[in-house]
Description:
Helix 2 packs parallel to helix 4. By secondary structure, the chain is α+β, with helices and mostly antiparallel strands. The protein is built from 6 helices and 20 strands. It folds into 3 domains: about 1-90 and about 230-255, no CATH class; about 95-225, Jelly Rolls, CATH 2.60.120; about 265-430, Jelly Rolls.
Amino acid sequence: MLQEWCSSRAARLKPIRYAAVIYLSLVATHATGDVHGNQDTLGSAFADLRAALDLSEQEIRNSPAYGSDVERAAGYQHMMRMLLKSVEAGMLQDTRYPFFRVMDMHVREGGDNPDQRYLFAPVEGGAAYRIHGELGSASRIEVQLYAGEPWAGAGRSAGYLGFEAIPVDAKGRFEVYLSPPGAAPRPGALPNPEDATTVVVRQIYADWTQDAPGHVHIDRTGMEGGLRMPDAEADVADRLRETARILRQSVAVWPAFVEQRYRQVREANVLSPPLDTSTLGGVEGRWMVTGHFDIPPGHALLVRTTPTSARYQALQITDLWFASLEYANGTASFTRSQSARASDGTYYHVIAAQDPGYPNWLGTGGLQRGTVLLRYDGMTTALAEEEWPKASLIKLEELPAAIPGFFVLSPAERADQVRARRAHIQRRFSR
């Protein structure tokens, strides 16, 4: 997801123009009384959540992404996904007794990568935590700390531990330590600064095998096995208000991000030069190429890429709400290993609403507009200019001439391709 490379420089984004509306909505709801005449803190906080949901709907309907019937439907799905995420993050998680929140195919946001399993946990800055598990069939794993919410222009990337820096034994077991300031250095340790708020673990699957996907856990050092006591009324009220805040922010930030960082800076169907995400406080060795598409009926966006030295190479498409498209029951993403190679030694991927039969077809699900993201992980040098991806808008009937060695899958072969993808996602997320 784009949280992979956001940093404090994301503050260059225009401030979310609805901040004043959020504030007024939260303070305008006066505290009501309960049946005993006491101040109803919970009722007031829940009223804030209801107001946040109403304001989120207004945000959706006023967005430039709220266009065609398919886009409008996706907008309401985006709002419900962010509600689900907000309840988990705002109501249920605890820095003292952490468990990872998993972003799966039900909660999609921020240009989420179909090849990754994202794990989020709130942390207390300066405290000690232990992250541990087994790699399983994941090809890479990485850990990143955030202070605040840099993807929303309010925070920074506070630390990163790449796969090469994580000790993994012969059985695929690993441990990562979030260390308090001043702690002695040790293998697999990541300093946990005082302003840290969130840890993110990414399991990366370059090959969608049916093998066991591995597992990851987190403990706060010294509190393992401790009993978490029930929350008090004031605590639950605070959690309700935090849920409301997360909902409003999450609904607003991603379509605004696409509008400001994709559609306003580059014309449709053109790809950006490769970006070294570490220059923005993101992942070292990760280069990204981005763009947005607008594909008329009967056309396709043809993306040509070359093999590179990257340890992981892939592309995907999203809608204008910045949610990944159907990748378990469809083909809206491809890794290098999943892609058929053309007779000229390169890869051609076809982005289109209609299935042209070519193996590397990314289906738009009926969307005419969306975004394109390409990732290159584990790079030690910049992509040479001749390795830069290229995109061209062509008619569907021109594909056989445009792709060297063009061939098509039979309906049964396409069904087998999707069936294998679905089986991997079922295992990855235990669904």
